[in-house]
């Protein structure tokens, strides 16, 4: 007799399985999410493919070339990935709708430095739409690149696996993870169970066939990748595609896109890739020196400071803008999305404690020109100077670049790659640089005086001496002392 099929009830929110239906999931607490699903044994998928049992092998017999990388053909993407696409790796790219995820995948398919076949799987667009995008990006002009790209427009996992076994691609690009579905996945396409099941099957195929996988995914309104958190644990690399909030004609950063790594098993997560979106698609930005500096003539307005920020291995000069106004309520507030608001609060507290600059009754507005998000501690001294300038109305010198970490005790701590920051400021024509005076014992770098002689180097051990070096007799402390003597 035919064996009766066994069913279980699986939660569409977290994936928990129960033997009987429950109104509320015991795992995530969601109501009415348990859906009847066919139950399979753990080895059913492997048995269906008639695979042999796994075998162990000594580490000494492993070929080191199995961990080699393949160039994506896009320099900024290779920088973020750590040198290229690692074989047998799965890469998840998340971003808002319309930010350019599909464009990035198609450009990767065209520029990847590999001789093998490339499979582009689209569950969102038709083949005609993909050809129109390829014509707009200029990819169709190169027939050799077009011939190696195979297109499959479906989200059905069974059909995708059949094509994978026939084509044997070395690079697979899936757009997107939310469109994948399988009869064995349980709930409707886009659900937690479907995304986990389908993504796991594709990742398993990549690991076994010496290929690489790119998956795109949409994000929620909070900016996180939509779907189960397990998906980020299954892949090797998680990339976030971001966009500056608004077009800035002054700084020239219109349609600027940032590619960041939130997880990378084969490289650093400190690197950032910068692109501009145009008629020819995404164009990597090689020279980022003045990309985030506002183009203006004359002196800087109060509340503006130029910071030398380290993004991975390169230095970027960013204009930090600050504004202080009397608080509208009984408590002051901090408005800052490009720099962590907690960091802004700590810096303002240090200014109030060590300089007597009253900021507790002010609403603080902080912004980074160009829409870049700053997480590096080397921007804290520039942030402090911008807040001081905004509160006192004293403008900073237009030719000065600032870098340093500010501690709660008011001391200016050393930062990494100080000599590289000074060199970048000199190459862009800045005549003075303000930074910490103490050596960095973590990296072995010496004091500011040991770096190159240009531009003029100014060192400070604490925030008081830094403010005196910048403003001299016009500082708040000097004016208060003169007022007291009178």
Description:
- There is one protein chain.
- This protein has 486 residues and is an alpha/beta fold.
- The chain folds into three domains: 7-39; 69-284, Rossmann fold (3-Layer(aba) Sandwich); 304-485, Ribosomal Protein S5, domain 2.
- It is 27% helix and 24% strand.
- The protein is built from 13 helices and 23 strands.
- Strands 8-7-9-10-6-11-12-13-14 form a nine-stranded mixed β-sheet, sandwiched between helices. It has a four-stranded mixed β-sheet with strand order 15-16-18-17. A three-stranded antiparallel β-sheet has the order 2-1-3, with no helix packed on it.
- The model is unreliable at 246-253, 440-447, 449-453 and 482-486 (pLDDT under 50).
Question: How would you sum up this structure in a few lines?
Answer:
By secondary structure, this protein is of the alpha/beta class. The chain is built from 13 helices and 23 strands. A hairpin with a 5-residue loop joins strand 1 (7-11) and strand 2 (17-18).
Spatial extent as radius of gyration: 27 Å
Low-confidence stretches: 246-253, 440-447, 449-453, 482-486
Q: Regarding CATH, which class of the largest domain? A: Alpha Beta
**Separation, N- and C-terminal Cα atoms:** 106 Å
Number-wise, the strands total 23
Strand order of the largest sheet: 8-7-9-10-6-11-12-13-14
Structural class: alpha/beta
Shape: globular
CATH topology group of the largest domain: Rossmann fold
Helix content class: 25-40%
Summed up, the helix count is 13
CATH homologous superfamily name of the largest domain?
P-loop containing nucleotide triphosphate hydrolases
Number of domains: 3
């Amino acid at each position: 007799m035919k064996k009766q099929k066994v069913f279980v009830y699986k939660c569409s929110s977290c994936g928990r399985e129960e033997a009987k239906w429950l109104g509320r999931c015991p795992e995530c607490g969601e109501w009415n999410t348990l859906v009847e699903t066919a139950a399979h044994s753990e080895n059913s998928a492997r048995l269906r493919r008639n695979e042999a049992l796994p075998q162990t092998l000594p580490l000494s017999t492993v070929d080191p070339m199995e961990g080699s990388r393949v160039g994506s053909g896009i320099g900024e993407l290779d920088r973020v990935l750590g040198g290229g696409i690692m074989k047998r790796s799965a890469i998840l790219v998340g971003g808002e709708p319309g930010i350019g995820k599909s464009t990035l995948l198609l450009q990767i398919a065209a520029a990847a430095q590999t001789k093998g076949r490339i499979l582009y799987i689209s569950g969102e667009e038709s083949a005609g739409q993909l050809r129109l995008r390829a014509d707009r990006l200029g990819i169709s002009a190169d027939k050799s690149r077009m011939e190696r790209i195979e297109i499959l427009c479906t989200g059905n996992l069974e059909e995708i696996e059949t094509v994978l076994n026939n084509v044997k691609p070395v690079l697979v690009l899936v757009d997107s993870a939310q469109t994948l579905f399988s009869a064995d996945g349980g709930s409707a396409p886009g659900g937690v169970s479907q995304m986990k099941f389908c993504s796991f099957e594709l990742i398993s195929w990549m690991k076994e066939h010496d290929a690489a996988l790119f998956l795109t995914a949409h994000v929620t309104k909070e900016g996180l990748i939509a779907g189960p958190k397990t998906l980020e644990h299954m892949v090797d690399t998680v990339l976030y595609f971001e966009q500056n909030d608004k077009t800035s004609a002054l700084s020239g950063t219109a349609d600027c896109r940032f590619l960041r790594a939130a997880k990378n098993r084969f490289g650093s997560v400190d690197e950032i890739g910068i692109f501009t979106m145009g008629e020819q698609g995404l164009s990597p930005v090689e020279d980022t020196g003045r990309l985030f500096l506002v183009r203006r003539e004359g002196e800087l307005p109060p509340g503006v400071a130029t910071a030398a920020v380290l993004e991975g291995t390169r230095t970027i000069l960013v204009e930090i803008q600050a504004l202080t106004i009397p608080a509208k309520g009984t408590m002051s507030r901090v408005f800052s999305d490009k720099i962590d608001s907690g960091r802004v609060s700590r810096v303002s507290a240090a200014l109030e404690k060590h300089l007597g600059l009253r900021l507790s009754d002010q609403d603080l507005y902080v912004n980074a020109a160009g829409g870049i998000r700053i997480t590096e501690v080397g921007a804290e001294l520039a942030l402090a100077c911008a807040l001081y300038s905004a509160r006192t109305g004293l403008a900073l010198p237009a030719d000065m670049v600032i870098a340093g970490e500010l501690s709660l005790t008011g001391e200016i701590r050393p930062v990494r790659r100080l000599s590289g920051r000074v060199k970048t400021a000199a190459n862009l024509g800045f005549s003075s640089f303000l930074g910490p005076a103490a050596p960095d014992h973590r990296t072995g770098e010496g004091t500011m005086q040991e770096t190159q002689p240009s531009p003029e180097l100014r060192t400070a051990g604490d925030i008081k001496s830094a403010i005196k070096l910048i403003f001299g007799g016009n500082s708040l402390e000097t004016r208060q002392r003169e007022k007291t003597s009178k």
